[in-house]
Automatic annotation (TrEMBL):
Residue span(s) of domain Transcription initiation factor TFIID subunit 2 TPR repeats: 631-813, 835-973
GO cellular component: transcription factor TFIID complex
Protein name, as recorded: Transcription initiation factor TFIID subunit 2
Highest taxon, organism lineage: Eukaryota
Sequence segments annotated as region (Disordered): 976-1016
Organism whose genome encodes this protein: Macrostomum lignano
Amino acid sequence: SARPYNLCQQTVCIKSISFRTKSIVGYTELLLQPLTPQLRKVKLNCKQCTVYSIWLETLPDSRGHQQTAMEASFAFNDPTMEICRAEMKQRNLAFFEQRHELAGRQLRITVEFSLQQPQAGLYFCSPLGEDGEVDMRSAHCFTSATGNSTRLWLPCIDSCSELCQWRLEITVPEDMVAVAPGDLLETVYTQDLQSKTYRYFLAQPTCAPNIGFAIGAFELETGPPLSGATASYFCPPPLASLMKHTVSRLPDCLAFYESLLGVRLPYGSLKLVFVDQAYETVQSYASVILASVSLLHSARIVDQAIESRRALALALAQQFFGCYIGMQTFSDAWLPQGISGHIAALYQRKVFGHNEYRNYISDQMSQVCHYESTRHEVLLDPSGAAGPDKQSAVTPFCLRFPQTVPPDYAAIYRSKAMLVIRLLGCKLGEEVLQYVLNKLITLASSYDPSLQQQPLQPGTEQSWRPAFLLSSQALLDLILALTGKNMQYLLDQWVTQPGHARLRASFSINKKRNLIALEIRDDPPVAASGGGGGGGGRRRRYTGAVAVSLQELDGPFTHTLKLDESAAVSDLPCHTKSRKIKRRKVLLSNGDELEDPDLGKLESDCSLLWLRVDPEMQLIRHVEIVQPEPMWHLLLRYERCVASQMAACRALCQPCFHSRETWQALMEVVRDERQYYRVRMQACYALCMISGPLDLLEPLMAVFLSLFGAKDTRSVTPANDFSNLQRYFLLKEVPLCMSLLHTAQGVCPPEVPEFILNLLRFNDNSKNIYADDYYRAALIESLFRTVSPAATVTTENFLAKLPKPIAALLEELSHGGDCEMPPRVPQAAAHRLHPADIGIFKSYAAPGNYIDVRLAAMEAVVNHIKCAKDAAALAWLLDSTVCNPAEEASVRHQAVAMLTIQPPFLRRKRGQLDTPELVERLWRLLNTELSADCRLRCSVASLYHLLYGRHRPKCTPLPENFLVLNVREGRTKIAQRAPTPTPAPADTDDDNANFGLTGAGVGLGSSGDEADVDDDLDIGLEDDYEFAPDEPPI
């Protein structure tokens, strides 16, 4: 650590909590070990809290002598309350100065504080009862786990590298429960028996970002022991039955992780708390997981069960890597995030199967490539790009601190980190990677357990600390020591550089020499579309090895090509000498043998069946393969890699492949129940795209009807039976595919809505063991999609133009009819029928509705804003949601994310919504009003950058003394206004005081440790840190 002291232990005591005033009162004690007798200053991170007093004392020496505790004066400085200031003043935080011979002894700093009406960090869910007072039976509060957010509710050293043991004492009302990290030592009632105090002790050293708690009137469910650790589950009382089923698979997940890593859960207890209005779906703390109540489900729900298992599996994996094994600096965050994501993906492979795992990896890779091509390149380790010039070449925001990374970038960052860890496993071997991960946890577990009931001693301080902090160099050194392999090249390729590979493969067959002339090149960068500031124009070219698989009649043959900066060209021999020799069986890549395959229209003298590039997905890449149509048909029919089959379905959607042979190949896949269900679903979409131009709607409808057991559109379908889950997902997707069918005039055939209406009318779920909520929701959304927007938007009385059943159903949904629909009912789809009246969606978006229904209604409003350029609707969305502190944090964030996905306008296409008032409003949000919520602040900054870029918005007046140079016409213009005083530097040691978008004045550029961010309480008299003012608007 760069600090002249080590943090040995911290005690947190919350003495009282009020749900009516949304406040807490308490104190914290930090036990420090000075490393130098010249210690003059101790910095603490503290934000939003009111500090009443700070006391300093030294611990008794060996003779029992102790100095009297002394109260220190203090001041507070938070440079991020207003990023760009018109006037900045010097603020020195003078606290305490002590020079005496006992400077080497441990110090205890006690800070008394309170927190009132927090804007972020600590969230209160305080529903009102019928009397207008807070209903204490369902009230609860919880913390958020975003990067370095502990300072928002607790004075601490909020750094990922400052580890210590923790004691937490939380006093709550008698009918409430407090859940915190560590083992519960005791529960003690106060003298008046009106309150009780929960005392926790966390023996394993961890950093402040891994500390959080939840308080509320929770229902407790004790699960079976987890390999020696106690398991406790908490949720609001009405949901106890759902919680019991939701967590039933958690012991199996933990058993898999323990078997995979070869170690037990590092904590003596595990506590899972389900909370309402959660900040994120899951949040992991040391031995504590906070999850949203939206993950709860009954045994009759199918869709949510899969999502819940994935989310909880990831949160449990983060207990090992993320909480127990942390990161040295934020530049090393890709390691714990990538490792936890990787082992969670391996659990998905065990539970959901190998096909689902490969499809998941392919989807994650596609998302990463799409984001890097259209938005920003993802740099996992930004430590090598310390300068602002290097960082701005990658992203317009700072990458070295969690407070400045937008949430959409952070999500892709986690996906790419997981892919890199998987690539590392491919290079080393899965068993070797598991051995390396086992060694990491074993080294940390070697910390002496006899020290659990006493503070860490100075002599052992540095010996154990590196074992709990993971860095890129430490991982490389460990791999080299255990395996003798140097994996530095892999990190240089994917970690310290941004971007991905965009490969384009083409070939020709030399029949005389029986060779395949194969060329693979890295596509040139394509400029990002939409003004998103994408990294397409800056993307580097990939150089390295590329695996190519040639499926021949004699079997699959894999070749490795070396790709340089231009291309890789190679003549590959065909192992199959001739097709004249009849072969009854063809060996496939997975070991299966194909009996007498139908080669279709493949050339008679061609022994190559199909081509695949990087078949094992050992690169982070986007692949485009140029091969004849018959080869795509063979690949789709016979290849057993689901990722390749999905790619074949997408390739056959190209207009050049629209033929009856393609239609027949896709139809075979849809009908074949042995095919993976996701491939069949993708084939359904492909069929819908090519059937219209080929005039094959009638036979396609016949196939879709046969899947439901119906002979025609008026037939009554059998009762629901979802026991076969693959068939269930296919049946739920087919109506959505059918709704895409349109004639040459752009109108959906009348048979489609008639059939979907019959599915709804005669839906029978009485004998089904699973609920049909999601199935009926898919039917309703499909029904709305059958109505062409072009046919209704310009029609005033469009309800009269619709079929009566559709109009009646639309009226029922629009006026809040009693429709037992699940989350994501299609208000957004219904919006295409109500372009002028969005009042119903405003009512659905109001607090009190289910969270997913609210988000669907907001999506409809955002779509309306983009299409109708409605300034009033945009103002309503900003007022009621984004700028409303009383709104749920997740809803505010999602509203901004929707505006980012569907911006009201783009910077290159100015419109009537591009006004100085909107600029001022967004600027106030990201500059001053969102100083506490870094996630929402970064989201607004991303939206601002999407709308206006990094320069001055064109709709705003010119700044004072601003020089305009017109190079083409040779003219200059100076805005003659009174100059604005230059801001003076502010005094701070905020190492992260610039917020993201440099050049637009929205930027946080910095250096140093991420703990010294935002706010400091300094012990000492001198302060030689300076805050560099933001770059003025250009």
